[in-house]
Specification:
The chain has 439 residues and is an alpha/beta fold. The protein is built from 16 helices and 14 strands. The protein has three domains: 186 residues, Rossmann fold (3-Layer(aba) Sandwich), CATH 3.40.50; 138 residues, Rossmann fold, CATH 3.40.50; 44 residues, no CATH class. Helix 1 packs across helix 7, helix 4 packs parallel to helix 5 and helix 9 packs across helix 11. It is globular.
C-alpha cells in the first residue's frame, strides 16, 4: 500500500499566463517572419525580446579573445577539466558504434556506416543563469562524433555578453558563435539567413518557446529531443540521510518554478524527516524563490511497502534524473528501465551529471524516457546502409525472389527490376519485354 505524504499542488496560484496554444501561435509567427524576412526579422525579434541589436550577432575572433580575457583563470581551468570529462566519455561512446560489412550469402554484401551530420547548431540558454554545461554537452559531443561544422547561439544576459559562456562555447570547439537567443536564434539556424548558414540539426535545452520552435521545425531539421522542465526522482531506503535527500531534491528544484521533485521511499521516517529538512533548507537557500515554488507545485513524497514497489513506481514516472540512495544502489540497474540517467549511491548526485562528471545532461523529460535516451554521440551520427551484389548467380536468384515478392504486393515495376536480373544472369524469360505498347 502506498501512502502519499505530499501531493503536488494541482491548482497553484501565480502560474504562467501563457498557454500552450499561445506559445505555439507566437512561435509560428516568429518562424514564418524569419522565413520570409531573414536577418531583418531576426534583428527585430532580438531587439523586442532581448533588447539586443549589435552591428553583428556573430563574434569575431578578436571579440572572442577579448571576452574570454575577462573570465577568471580558475573558471577557465574548470571548463577545460569538465570538457575533458565530457569528451573522454563521448569518444568512448563513439568507439562503441562500429561500421561493418557482412556477406549475407555468397556474393551479396550488406554494410553499415555511421556518418557524422555535416552541420549542427547548438543552442546554449541564458535566461536566469549562464549555462556553461550546455556548451560542453552539445558542442563537445558533436565534435567527438566528427561533426565538421558547429555553430552556437547564446542570448545576452541582462543586455550583456556572458563571458564564461562564450569561453565554454569556444573551448568546446564551436566554429562560429552568435550572441542571439530565443526562437529567433533557433529559427535562424534552422532556416538560414543572409548572415547565418543553415544547419541540419539543432541540439540544446531552452525555455518553452525554444522547445516549441524546435518541435515545429523538426522534419525540416533534426533535433536532439523534445525538452521540458528539469525533473528529479529519488528512490531511498531506511538508511538514506534525509538531509542529503532534501538537499538533492532542492538542487534540481532551483532550475525553475516548474520542476517535478519526487521522493519514493520504503521508510516513513525518512519521508517525514525529508519533508522537514526541505522546509528548513528553503528558509536559507539563496534560490528558494524558484525552488520553493517547484516544491509546492510539483513536489511529491510517497511511502511504499518495499524497494521492489519503489522501483516499479519510479518506472511509471520515467523521470529525467533518477537518484538511488539505498544500501545496494546498483540493484536499480536491473530493476528499472525508464529513466534519462541513473545516479547510484550517496557519493553520486544529479548535480555531478549536470555540471561536471562527463555524461550528457540533455535528457528526456515528460515521460519520454519510456522510449528514448538523452543526447549522446550517436545522435550526431547518421547510421546508413549500403549493398552490393558481386555474384551473377546471387543477383539472378534475388531477381526471382524480388519478382515474386513485389507481385505479391502489386508492384509490377519493382518485379520487373528483379526479372531483368534473372534474365541477364540466369537466362530467365521476360515475356513483358516483347509486349506491345498500350496507348
Amino acid at each position: 500500500m502506498t501512502v502519499t505524504l505530499k501531493k503536488p499542488n494541482t491548482d497553484p496560484s501565480g502560474g504562467s499566463s501563457t498557454s500552450a496554444s499561445d506559445v505555439s501561435r507566437i512561435v509560428r509567427g516568429v518562424i514564418d517572419d524569419i522565413r520570409q524576412n531573414g536577418d531583418k526579422a531576426v534583428r527585430a525579434y532580438s531587439e523586442k525580446f532581448d533588447k539586443w541589436s549589435p552591428k553583428s550577432f556573430k563574434l569575431s575572433r578578436n571579440d572572442i579573445d577579448r571576452i574570454i580575457s575577462k573570465v577568471p583563470k580558475q573558471v577557465l581551468e574548470d571548463i577545460k577539466t569538465v570538457q575533458d570529462n565530457v569528451r573522454t566519455f563521448a569518444l568512448e561512446q563513439r568507439k562503441s558504434i562500429t561500421d561493418f560489412e557482412y556477406e549475407i550469402r555468397p556474393g551479396v554484401h550488406l554494410g553499415q556506416k555511421n556518418i557524422p551530420i555535416n552541420a549542427v547548431g547548438a543552442y546554449i540558454p541564458g535566461g536566469r543563469y549562464p549555462l556553461l554545461a550546455s556548451a560542453h554537452m552539445t558542442i563537445v559531443t558533436a565534435k567527438a562524433a566528427g561533426v565538421k561544422r558547429v555553430i552556437a547561439c547564446t542570448p545576452p544576459i541582462l543586455g550583456e555578453i556572458p563571458p564564461s559562456t562564450v569561453a565554454a562555447i569556444h573551448l568546446a570547439g564551436a566554429d562560429d558563435i552568435y550572441i542571439l537567443g530565443g526562437v529567433q536564434a533557433v529559427a535562424a539556424m534552422a532556416i538560414g539567413t543572409e548572415t547565418i548558414d543553415k544547419i541540419d540539426f539543432i541540439a540544446g535545452p531552452g525555455n518553452p518557446f525554444v522547445a516549441e520552435a524546435k518541435r515545429q521545425l523538426f522534419g525540416e531539421i533534426g533535433i536532439d529531443l523534445p525538452a521540458g522542465p528539469t525533473e528529479v526522482l529519488i528512490v531511498a531506503d531506511q538508511a538514506a540521510d534525509p538531509v542529503v535527500v532534501a538537499t538533492d531534491l532542492l538542487s534540481q528544484a532551483e532550475h525553475g518554478p516548474d520542476t517535478p521533485a519526487v521522493l519514493i521511499t520504503n521508510s516513513r521516517k525518512v519521508a517525514e524527516k525529508t519533508i522537514t529538512e526541505v522546509n528548513r533548507l528553503l528558509k536559507v537557500l539563496p534560490t528558494a524563490g524558484l525552488a520553493s515554488v517547484s516544491w509546492d507545485r510539483f513536489g511529491e513524497v510517497h511511502v511504499v511497502e518495499n524497494l521492489a514497489e519503489a522501483y516499479q513506481m519510479a518506472d511509471t514516472y520515467a523521470s529525467e534524473h533518477v537518484q538511488i540512495l539505498t544500501a545496494n544502489p546498483r540493484e536499480a540497474l536491473e530493476k528499472m528501465s525508464n529513466y534519462g540517467a541513473l545516479f547510484l549511491g550517496e557519493k553520486t548526485c544529479v548535480s555531478y551529471g549536470d555540471k561536471c562528471i562527463g555524461t550528457n545532461h540533455v535528457l528526456p523529460t515528460k515521460g519520454a524516457a519510456r522510449y528514448t535516451g538523452g543526447l549522446w554521440v550517436g545522435k550526431y551520427l547518421k547510421t546508413v546502409t549500403y549493398q552490393e551484389v558481386t555474384s551473377e548467380q546471387a543477383s539472378g536468384e534475388l531477381g526471382r525472389l524480388c519478382g515474386r515478392a513485389a507481385r505479391a504486393e502489386g508492384f509490377e515495376g519493382h518485379a520487373r527490376s528483379g526479372d531483368i536480373r534473372a534474365r541477364n544472369y540466369l537466362n530467365d524469360t521476360c515475356d513483358w519485354l516483347s509486349q506491345s505498347a498500350k496507348i
